[in-house]
Design brief:
94 residues; mainly alpha; 2 helices; extended
């Protein structure tokens, strides 16, 4: 079956939003990447809500590959929240 993705061509903006209650140390480059992804996704969700409510049209579209990559046939999505929770628990055991 075809693979679908939501595609958004948003602009990159920089507003400081660092994790305040984390014991992990992040590099500035890591924080910038996380901030960019977070802000871009917030724009996608906002535009999708506006599009579905009828106030805007055509901002978000679904991308469907015509020929799926056969090497990704066995790919299973990863639950990042669960992965982080398991890694945190493993670190506490050590």
């Amino acid at each position: 079956s075809p693979v679908s993705r939501v595609v958004y061509n948003g602009k990159r903006n920089s507003s400081p939003r660092s994790p305040s209650n984390s014991s992990e140390i992040f590099t500035p480059a890591h924080e910038e990447n996380v901030r960019f992804i977070y802000e871009a996704w917030q724009c996608v969700e906002r535009d999708l809500r506006n599009q579905m409510s009828g106030s805007e049209r055509g901002l978000v579209e679904e991308y469907v590959e015509k020929i799926p990559n056969p090497s990704l046939k066995a790919f299973k999505p990863v639950d990042l929240s669960d992965l982080k929770r398991r890694n945190t628990q493993d670190a506490k055991k050590s």
